[in-house]
Amino acid sequence: MGKFILCALVGGSAFAGFLGAQLAPSAAANSVQQTEFHSRNDAVSTKPVVIELFTSQGCSSCPPADMLAKRLAKDDALLVITRPVTYWDRLGWKDTLAREDNTRLQRAYAAKGNAGSGVYTPQIVANGGGGAVGSRENDIRSLVRRADRSGPFIAASTDDSGQVNVTINGRSDHMSGVSLVALSSEETVQIGRGENGGRTMHYTNVVKAERNLGSWRGKPKQYAIPPEYLKISGADKYAILVQRPGAGPIVAAKLLDI
User: Fold this and answer.
1) How do residues 148-165 score in pLDDT, each as one tens digit?
2) Backbone torsions φ then ψ of 124, nearest 5 degrees
3) CA geometry: angle at 39 spanning 246 and 149, to 5°?
């Protein structure tokens, strides 16, 4: 059973265009290529494009996207974040990594009506804006090429106490929220039931927790991250996201070197 049926939750012309792209599901797997993204200069590499993958252990269409996410995560020009959703739990297998916050975020993105938006799996959203089927690398590459990298720079340092001090430098007329995202670099799950029953699934940079650090209002500002914020169970890496309110664009991101 394909998982693109849920796209019917999206109305209007955006849904019509997306539905047309889904008439041949096999194209999602076949479109994966072996070429990775590469940054062209230091400015690009220090301002990664955030690729959020909405996936599910109960989604038979998702494994190719999960594998692609693992490969894309090796590229420093990208920050891949996997966000397992909850709405396929009703099909017989409760996703062991899913968070309701991920589902709410995907729905909030869908409400924006951007190209490729909707509530479906697998889906990627690039920098909080346009979306694409998560296994279609060509479409993802196109979104990355068009991504806005003009946002602020993020720098981070660690003091003797283990506190991480994050500085955001840049100018903007818009307020953004600053969050700390705890990630598990790799998760392996044995699926017991459902459409992927009997399979062993692998996931990359899975969200374990998120914490609001405050707001950024377009001027240089520093944020302190105490050591206890970096002790989330199951997390082995942490990222900073700067995002406009209401599931708006992600204007800056950084994977912390800790």
Assistant:
1) 998 999 999 999 999 999
2) -115, 150
3) 30
